[in-house]
Amino acid sequence: xxxxxxxxxxxxxxxxxxxxxxxxxxxxxxxxxxxxxxxxxxxxxxxxxxxxxxxxxxxxxxxxxxxxxxxxxxxxxxxxxxxxxxxxxxxxxxxxxxxxxxxxxxxxxxxxxxxxxxxxxxxxxxxxxxxxxxxxxxxxxxxxxxxxxxxxxxxxxxxxxxxxxxxxxxxxxxxxxxxxxxxxxxxxxxxxxxxxxxxxxxxxxxxxxxxxxxxxxxxxxxxxxxxxxxxxxxxxxxxxxxxxxxxxxxxxxxxxxxxxxxxxxxxxxxxxxxxxxxxxxxxxxxxxxxxxxxxxxxxxxxxxxxxxxxxxxxxxxxxxxxxxxxxxxxxxxxxxxxxxxxxxxxxxxxxxxxxxxxxxxxxxxxxxxxxxxxxxxxxxxxxxxxxxxx
Length: 390
Fold this sequence. Notes:
By secondary structure, the protein is an alpha+beta fold. The protein has three domains: 78-177, Thrombin, subunit H (Beta Barrel); 191-288, Thrombin, subunit H (Beta Barrel); 296-383, Roll (Pdz3 Domain). The chain is built from nine helices and 20 strands. Strands 1-2-3-6-5-4 form a six-stranded antiparallel β-barrel. Strand 2 and strand 3 (135-138) form a beta hairpin. The longest helix has 21 residues, at 2-22. It is globular.
């Protein structure tokens, strides 16, 4: 009997010890004042210092649905362009067809007995509707030499389109769909307000894959000296651009068109270029007014800023075209142009754009630095001639 009582006392003692270690069975698993866990802040479980900024979740900055909303809003305005281009391969002094070399080939062409061979090739590209009447904005190189253009809309319709106007110097072209409207039109933004680091979305038909959307950022603005067009002021983006994207829209986070996808850097990745929409807007307005594309001209040959050598800011005049407005106004080589109409000039491309974008016939005031003396010269711009002789 005593042994039984002792056994029960021993089991009871063990039960009390185990219960004391575990705590109450219904005790909530939350930090309490009497627990070591209470020393851990649930809002700061990893001991982040108070002075370190808290990075919000991506969804808090850009809702996950935002890009999908942009795609749905813009998709009806994006078109896939199919072209048939005629490339004529004729006799040249450097490339002659068999049997038509030298003077024999020349006289055959002169007497009309020889015709240039015509090669037809298929082309693809992109564009976007900018007017309910069916006007499409795209790149000139997409439709250059095209004898047939067809626009494939987002709803699957494939309609013929015709050329309205183009400007090879800016690589822009305007088309119009031959079909019953009205058509949806994209909303145009303001490319002058762009800043590096902003979100960007490129749309088009890379490699024939229509309605392809890619996302990136604005890498830089004002890119030039790329050898893509005569007048360059490109937006750089890392939103993926491939063959077939040319002519498609580059969008901002508000689903506004801020550029026209134009080219890529073949030796790099994530380096694409788009024409600013503000430049394209001026082109469209000129074409729709049935006016010829004109460029203001002063007759200056300029070179990069020479500020590093002598501490003077400005763009140096390399030469002046004889008989040009600049020549008549008295501008000389080695002059430094420091301001145009009161706006400071610091880069070569900036000066070229300021002159080319001005109105033909308008009087421009150039502030120059000539041998340390600041002078103002007034020059009335003219239309750039087809051929310029120094």
